[in-house]
Amino acid sequence: MDNDITVRGVFSFRVEFSLQCPRCDRPLPFDGPLEKAHCNHCQSDIDIPRSYWIENLANSCRKMQNTESGMGTASMLIGTFHGNLTLARFDPYCDNCKTFFEDPWNLVHGSRYVCTECGTEYPVQQPPGWLSSEVPRINTLINAIFSEDDSACGADSGMIPESISCPSCAALLEVTGTTRFVKCKYCSGQLYLPDDLWLRFHAGKRKRRWFVICEYMDEE
Ligand SMILES: [Zn+2]
Ligand SMILES: [Zn+2]
Ligand SMILES: [Zn+2]
Description:
- The protein is an alpha+beta fold and 220 residues long.
- Helices cover 19% and strands 30% of the residues.
- The chain has four helices and 14 strands.
- Strand 3 (36-38) and strand 4 (45-47) form a beta hairpin.
- The longest helix is centred in the first third of the chain and has 16 residues, at 50-65.
């Protein structure tokens, strides 16, 4: 296995990335090198400059090349944005059942990898052009999102309705987490979904991990 990787000249690492919303300070998950993000708490839109991703991902590749398999680092980011970046040197695996991918170094861009154990699908993509041109050693992204339109695909599960009782009339309401304000159909009162319930709907998004397949490079 180890020989194989060296011969092919690539390795992979797992990424978990979140930034603090500059408006409300809540953590905002980044499920890939997204240029825009929407904060569900304060409803503000945040722009992430490409240079920010380029710098952080180039550093990550450098750091992970010298990290032993199974080991990782967690960094607090400061500067333009505050956040957390957790990296771990792992071959691609299914986040649902922890089975390693079969033949992970020959995945086809634009396809979906289907876990051999549990059937969970993972999008396999070429990095966006602006990233490839600056960090050409990044070869493939697995389970990453780079535009808001992609967010429907991948390992996220659908929304399962939850019940909450209306604070005004105590009627039991079914909510799906599409909006934070819900109108009670019995008393027409407005209710604001509490944090724990809101996060239950959006937790799948928060936990999404992505993998970067990267070429080995000699350091100068
Ligand atoms: Zn916010
Ligand atoms: Zn699986
Ligand atoms: Zn009500």
